[in-house]
Write a structure and sequence with these properties.
146 residues, 5-stranded parallel beta sheet, 5 strands, 37% helix
Length: 146
Amino acid sequence: MQEGVTILIVEDDDGHASLAERNLRRAGVHNTVTRFADGQDVLEFLYDEEANHPGPDEPGYLMLLDLRMPRVGGLEVLKRIKGDERWSNMPVIMLTTTDNPDEINECHEHGCNSYVTKPVEYEQFVEVLQRIGMFLLVVQVPQVKK
């Protein structure tokens, strides 16, 4: 993955978040990873005017977003991000246990870039995370809009 891009993991399950970061590292992704326990936390971060967000012409963020979380769910986060000119070009990969076709379609309708269902089996989940890591190594992330 291009240098300077920060990966935002928005996941309420501590084990899943830890597993995601660990397997991204194993796949060779060495970018900064910042974890948020729910949608409210990541929205507060993105809309904090005093936060040190990337400026224009700098690589931005890529988000791995769970769908079902307390306080503010992933679909609402996705809608807010994709509806905001500053953040609309941020790549968002939904990474969730939900494989309901209606929810998958709804996420794509609201602008998610990819939708990955977390397998229930541990070994399969690890494999999926490592494949995401390999994918992220070749992804180009757009600059932040001002």
